[in-house]
Amino acid sequence: MIPERPKVFFASEDIGLCMSALAEGFRALGCPTTTMVTHKEVNAPEIEYDIVRGNVIFARMNYAKHPRLVAGVTRRVDAVLTAALNGVATPSYLDHDVYVFFWKPWAPPPVLFPLLKRLGKKIVVYYLGSEARHVAAFSQEFGVDPSKWGASYHREPLDPRIESIRWAELYADLVYSVPDQSSLQIRPYYHSFVPLRIDLEAHVPAREVPVVLHAPAWDFKQRGDIKGTSHVMQAVEELKREGLQFEFKFLTGLLRKDLLEILKSSDIVLDELILGGPGALAAEAMRAGCAVATHIIEPPQPFFDPPVCPVSPSNVKERLRRLVTDMPYRLELASKGPAWASRVFDPTWIASRMLTHLRGEQLPDYVPRFYLEKFVPPTRLSARTRALGLRVAERYRPETAQHLHEAAKRGVIAAPRRSRLREADLVPHDDGA
Questions:
Q1: Residue 388 and residue 254 share a domain
Q2: Residues 316 and 361 in one domain
Q3: I want to staple 39 with a disulfide (CB 3.0 to 4.6 A). Which of 55, 84, 315, 430 is the partner?
Q4: What pLDDT score was predicted for residue 174?
């Protein structure tokens, strides 16, 4: 059992400012909180944290702006230093009841998670994107061509990603995710609503010549076409040539406060076309009173049915045409958006929902099936990762027992007859075995 108002520790990356927003939601419920990050968010320097510890080199030299080799080596050195600094500080972090992890824990999961469980702590893992998603599984499950995605996505090793997820699935009391990023997951999970502080007054414009905004958070040249930007640009160009009247703005890398100002003067926000939404930008756009077009997993769940125009690379041109020309449709979406976004992305509501889950009062929202039933790894997974996968399947998916041998043949888990490994056998050794 947890206290009525548990003390909650948040770590260690404030992805999309979601971690700090959720902490604010818990404080609104009367729960003491501590926020710990390895670095402050570049696009929101005004956000304050209780602990900023890590990324020693990055704080002095933005290695992302250096050649790839230099950046890669520096990033790895920084990761080691960050883990060491926070490892030493771990005893000072342990006076909390609940630990909520965004992106990654401050210390290696095989060490930290068992420690927290021995101390009787509750563990929550909150997935928001690339920390759970991998291009190999995503492209297989959703039939997406990722060839135009940034090179970094294709260089990400698969085995460590899966192993990280397995430690979370084995030890966390709660796992949060969404269908388009759960291709590697086995354990049932709760829907990852995006906690956001959206301090905007809704204003629904009704311009005859609407302003259309496309604003990826990162540079297209660096991260590639994961947002579907090339399809957006092609659709805009073709519609302009046809004489359709609208103003188009393409912006990237903005500070959050500047982006919020731009949303106030936009009619339509055309967000991502490939990954599932609505994400942070779409949520802020809905709250501002914009009509939003974004990709969603269809059919939507009853508890997550956003008032947006569903788009994909194949239909973005016609969907954008309708938003520009069909003002009643555009205004209907824009008028429904603020109330829906205010409710669904409200940090206090999400915090209350998490407390309900921690008390065991609601079953998980989803049961992921793709990994065990269909995924074919492009490279051989390590014995430890396969053994961890089998342990998760046997513990949390007993209904799959008759299918585990087939999954083992595809190499996604260990063969059931060889799986009874002690916990110590699963912890990484110095020799990497």
A1: no
A2: no
A3: 55
A4: 98
